[in-house]
Amino acid sequence: MKAVNNSSLMQMSVSDIARLVKGELAGDAAVVISGFSGIKEAKKNELTFLSNPKYEPLLLDTQAGVVLVPRQINCPGKTLIRVDNPSLSFAQVVNHFLKDAPDYKPSGIHPTSVIAATAKLGSKVAIGAHAVIEEGAVIGEGSVIYANSYVGHGAQVGRDCLIYPNVVLREKVVLGNRVIIHSGSVIGSDGYGYVISDGRHLKIPQVGTVLVEDDVEIGANVTIDRARFDKTIIGEGTKIDNLVQIAHNVIIGKHCLIVAQSGIAGSTKLGNYVILAAQTGLVGHLEIGDGAIVLAQSGVSKSLKAGEQVFGSPAHPFKDALRNNAHIQRLDKYVEMIKDLKKRIEELEKKTI
Question: For this structure, is 327 an active site residue?
Answer without folding.
Answer: no
